[in-house]
Design goal:
The protein contains 19 helices and 16 strands. The protein is globular and about 80 Å long. The protein is an alpha/beta fold and 504 residues long. Helix 15 crosses helix 16, helix 16 crosses helix 17 and helix 17 packs across helix 18. The two termini are 46 Å apart.
Length: 504
């Protein structure tokens, strides 16, 4: 992975091996070459490495060609140049100070570790330059409100709480606040509180002194120190252990902290932006989140809307994702109108993150091609995915008292229309039958995914179990239920199981 790979270019094999050993010790993956000519540029991207360590290279022409190739990518990794060669590299390569860093020779573990940490932060900061300063992408009413709130709160140092479902772009909003604030020239440091074990989170946030615990062979800065003068983004704050919540509350109140194993208090000048997908008010009632910390964090709340509530933003989001794919060298895949219409009908439980993952998948599967609805993964085709599955078996003799059920041909025609309809046909249509055909399709898919368990299918459809059983009867699917299963038992403790819907 590019996040941990470091390229070493050094004609001195013994020195290169020593550097590789240090990198492996601190959990990086070294890639050694004796000359830049050994790097096959056509098979790599500059971002394949988090940093490049440069020692001596007698092939200056190949080295200059390699550096020129790096410079084509505005987000290229920094060059860490050994001191004897640093001045020559600075005059020849024309790189700015943030992209060309000196390394003492012989290399010291502490300095190399710190430089690689800075390289990681540098990459993160450079990538944020691609994020629009105005805020998250979209022109829908919910997103215009979000951008307005970002613009209002950015000039102040008020603590911000960003809420919303997973994948809605909470970190994008936090970065936009930072970019529009007076702290924009200082670091934006993000930490996922839910991804770090609770016993390690204190050291990650506050740093530690040498010997503070087993394995602490050197002192290390924490995220609060790294974000000094800038913004600290505490993602998934709702997953933080109660013991850590107390310590975060103290820092918010007093603006001081101590490293693990340290005795000296340090002041911190950081703006705090927190985010969570949880309902913290419910967590307070359950006792898993401190009420006093909640009120400290919830000074200026911003709620990110889910993608299903702003589907009109899909074209803009797609354009942005195509540009990101091109910039990162992933290729691109252009969506045809029928594919876009199919995606508009999808409910997007993973929100913008799911959309991004889909685009990357399509770019791999269909590089440089136009993608139609038929090329989409099945779950994204909506009603189109059901058009191939015959629905004739679903037609009973009578569905409701006094109302004959449509025959198999009519149901198939309705399903076909549900799959292909992008605008009202000239001859018009029966809206009720069309909606019922879509409902039958979704019920069938839910039953298949839940292996015929009605209670589980009802959860997928976000409806009551008893309501789903009534719909099964209405559409004639209840013939697959046994007498006991077909009974509407309001107790709800016993999961009814129906036979998997058969395909002709």
């Amino acid at each position: 992975m590019s996040e941990s790979r470091v390229l070493i270019i050094d004609s001195d094999a013994e020195r290169s091996a020593a550097h590789a050993a240090i990198l492996q010790f601190i959990d990086y993956r070294p890639v050694e070459v004796r000359s830049a000519a050994e790097v096959k540029l056509s098979e790599h991207r500059p971002q394949d490495w988090i940093a490049v360590i440069l020692g001596s290279d007698t092939d200056y022409e190949s080295l200059e060609r390699f550096v020129d190739w790096l410079k084509r990518d505005r987000y290229h990794p920094p060059l860490l140049v050994l001191q004897p060669y640093f001045e020559r590299a600075r005059t020849r390569f024309g790189l700015d100070e943030s992209a060309l860093l000196p390394v003492e020779a012989p290399v010291k573990y502490t300095q190399l570790n710190e430089l690689l940490r800075r390289a990681g932060l540098l990459r993160m900061d450079r990538e944020t330059a691609a994020v629009r300063r105005s805020g998250p992408t979209g022109n829908s009413a919910p997103m215009r409100r979000v951008r307005q709130m970002i613009a209002q709160v950015a000039p102040f140092d008020s603590t911000v709480m960003v809420t919303g479902e997973s994948g809605t772009g909470k970190e994008v909003a936090a970065r936009a606040i930072h970019d529009q604030s007076s702290r924009r020239d200082h670091p934006f440091v993000a930490v996922n509180c839910g991804a770090i074990p609770s016993e390690l989170l204190e050291s990650e946030l506050f740093g530690h002194e040498k010997g503070a615990f087993t394995g602490a062979i050197t002192a290390r800065k924490g995220r609060f120190e790294m974000a000094d003068g800038g913004t600290l983004f505490l993602d998934e704050i709702g997953d933080m252990a109660l013991s850590m919540q107390v310590k975060i509350l103290r820092v918010l109140q007093e603006r001081t902290f101590e490293r693990v194993g340290g005795t000296r208090s340090q002041r911190c000048d950081v703006r705090i932006i927190a985010a969570t997908h949880r309902n913290l008010e419910e967590s307070i009632i359950k006792g898993s989140f401190r009420e006093d910390l909640y009120y400290r964090l919830n000074v200026f709340p911003i709620e990110m809307p889910p993608l299903r509530e702003r589907l009109e933003d899909l074209p803009l989001l797609m354009d942005d994702l195509v540009k990101v794919m091109e910039r990162n060298g992933h290729g691109q895949a252009r969506l045809l109108p029928d594919a876009i219409h199919a995606l508009r009908s999808y409910h997007w439980p993973g929100n913008v993150r799911e959309l991004s993952n889909l685009f990357e998948r399509l770019a791999v599967l269909h590089p440089g091609r136009e993608v139609s609805a038929a090329d989409l993964p099945r779950q994204y085709r909506g009603a189109a995915a059901a058009a191939a599955a015959p629905l004739a078996m679903a037609a009973p003799a009578v569905r409701e008292e006094g109302r004959p059920a449509p025959n198999a041909e009519m149901i198939a025609l309705q399903a076909s229309r549900a799959a292909s309809l992008t605008e009202l046909p000239p001859e018009g249509m029966n809206l009720k039958d069309h909606i019922e055909a879509i409902e039958m399709t979704l019920i069938r898919q839910a039953l298949e995914k839940s292996d015929g368990v009605v209670a589980h299918a009802a959860k997928l459809l976000n409806t009551r179990r008893t309501t789903l059983v009534e719909k099964l009867r209405k559409y004639g699917l209840s013939r697959d239920l046994s007498d006991d299963e077909a009974s509407v038992d309001t107790g709800g403790d016993n999961a009814e199981r129906i036979g998997r819907i058969r395909n002709n």
